[in-house]
Amino acid sequence: MTIGFLIPLSIGMGLAGLVAFFWALRNGQFSDPEGDACRILIPQPPAKGDTHVRLASQPDHEDPDRGL
């Protein structure tokens, strides 16, 4: 490939990235950085095999391997 092809290609890719960044900025993709930071602190659902607090008081759900 010649440099006459690669230079316009790299400029075009850079402009496409810049357009994508401004599009994301304009559509509110970066409007809630505090929410993203706090979202990692929200507890995740229990892992498989762990007893869920809401279901722990119901006898049918204490042992999921037990058949009905």
UniProtKB/TrEMBL annotation:
Cross-referenced PANTHER family: FIXS PROTEIN (PTHR41532:SF1)
Protein name according to UniProt: Cytochrome oxidase maturation protein, cbb3-type
InterPro entries xrefs: Cyt_oxidase_maturation_cbb3
Keyword ATP-binding: no
Stretches for region Disordered: 42-68
Keyword tags: Membrane, Transmembrane, Transmembrane helix
Gene source species: Gemmobacter nanjingensis
Higher taxonomy: Bacteria, Pseudomonadati, Pseudomonadota, Alphaproteobacteria, Rhodobacterales
Biased composition regions of type Basic and acidic residues, renumbered to the chain: 49-68
Annotated transmembrane regions: 6-25
Recorded superkingdom: Bacteria
